[in-house]
Every structure is written in C-alpha cells, then in structure tokens.
Amino acid sequence: MSIRAICLASTALVLAAPAFADVTIYTTRQPDLIQPVMDAFTADTGIAVDLQFVEDGLVERLKTEGARSPADLVMTVDIANLSRVVDAGVVQTVDSEVLTSAVPANLRGENNDWFALTERARIVYASKDRVADGEVTSYEDLADPKWAGRICTRSGLHNYNLALLSAAIATHGEEAAKEWAAGVKANLARTPQGNDRAQVKAIWAGECDISLGNTYYMGKMLADEEQTEWANAVRIEFPEFEGGGTHINVSGIALTQSSSNPDEAIQLMEYLVSPAAQAIYAEENSEYPVLAEAEVSELVASWGSFTADDVSLTELASHRAAALRIMEEVNFDG
Questions:
Q1: pLDDT value at residue 91
Q2: Interval 192-219: pLDDT, tens
Q3: Which helix (H) or strand (E) is 253 found in, with range?
Q4: Which of 133, 177, 220, 272 is deepest in the core (most CB within 10 A)?
C-alpha cells in the first residue's frame, strides 16, 4: 500500500477515534502539508490534534498569551525561527530518549528545547541546456568570475540566504565570508527578487543559468501544472563547502512552556520521528527525514545523494547577526 493510501486510510479511522486529549499546535507551515501525519497519529493513539496556522508573529503571540496560551507545541521552519522561540523563553526542555536517539545532536537544541523533523538542502538549480554536468562544484565557486551575469537568487536578507552565509562564516570566518558574499553579488544576473521558484522561472526564461534554492521547491514546482515546465528546465546540483558538506536547514518542533498536555504533546513529538511518520512527513513536503533509517521518497531520491554539512545549527544561529551585517555592508540587494 502506498504512503498516500495509508494516509487516506488513517484519515478515515480518525473519524471514529476517541479523542481523550487534544494537542494544539501553532504552526507556520500550511496545515494541509502536515495534516496527513497528524491524522495518522490520531488514528494510532486517539489523541486529537488541533493545527492552528500562525503566518506571522508566532513568538509575539506566544509571549502575549503567556501561561494562558492553548499551544502545546510550535512547528516552524529555519533555524533562525527555532532560535527565536528558544530565546523568547516560550518553550521548554524535553527529556526523551526517543527524540535524542532519533535526532542527531547537530539537528536539535543544545538543551533539547527544539528538535528537527525534516531537512532541506540549499542547493543550486542549474540550467540543463547551459550548464554542463560538474560545472557547479562548491559554494565557494559561486564567487568565481566565470559565473558573472549567470546567477539569480532571492533577497540576501531572507532567512534561507542568511543561514547559508552563516554557514560560510562557520566554515571560513567573517572576513572570508564577506569576500564570498561580495563575489556572489558581483556575479548576479539581476537584482535579488522573488522567491526560490521565481529563480527557476528566470533560468527557464534565459535570464540566468543557475540559482540558489531549497530542494523541496522542485517537488512543489513539479506538482504545479504552470510551474512544471520551469522545473524540467533545471537539475539539482549539490555544492559543498570546502572541507565540509552541503548546507542544510530544517523544519522543527518544540514544546511550549504553556502546554497543558505535555505528556500527549511529547508523545506526538516522539511519533513524528518514527520511521512511518518520517516517511509520510518527508514525502508530503518533498524533504529529507532526519531519522537515518527512514525512507526517502522516490522523487527526492531521484535528485541524487549528498553529504550534509555537520556544523551545529545552533552555531549557525549564533552567526545570524554577523551574516545580516555582512549582507548590508556588501549591499547585496542593491
């Protein structure tokens, strides 16, 4: 039976499942992306899950609500956002051998106050027609003048690019990272604009040859009839940092200080790192599981393999202010 068929069967079972306790999740991810795995959890446990989409102001909302907040868990993407909820004091440490065994140390908070659920790599989308196999090598190579007028990207001030620059700082130090950012800017084909999918469209349109982007956008574009042609015009390349690996970021989860059902909430957290849940969650979002033994979807596997950079995401978060300053100093978006 396919994963999607399992999800549909689980959804049907949910209707009859007795909900003895509700777990409320504030999520910055669209609920339809994660509803299938929540339905499977409810079918298995009888615990009903209430997903509440919070597009903006997640931390501010949790701070304002304080101890009265109905949220048991928060789910968000990017290490910067996970660090914000920790720094705001609105989440708590979770003591769970299941979670610490499943999630590598570099993909969780130093005090186990957040845990990654899926990974995404920040890679290069390359034109199939104008970029030869093997022409894209390392992240450092993107500053080489051979790419002059050939690179597209979204704003350098976006969290995804700030995290990548933070990784460059962790690898080479601030001075070298600043030189790299200036070099990439010099190679841009146009002013940074749009989202990651807009960069792939620009490659398809012949405006540039390569772009920075997250892997899962390939899955999103292939699922969109209008964008399929863009996706088919490019291939995914996995650059690495010299002496390191391919930069990754995460989606993650944390237990709130206000949780009124912490036992059930932790049960859900543990379920989300189980092999079955990891496979469902990762396939629905075209992402990589954090659990080593979980299956990668057929589509994601078709993009090829890579060695993930093992730098601690907590360390990357500590470099974010420096990354922001560097982007402003080199006037990356100017």
A1: 98
A2: 999 999 999 999 999 999 999 999 999 9
A3: strand 248-256
A4: 272
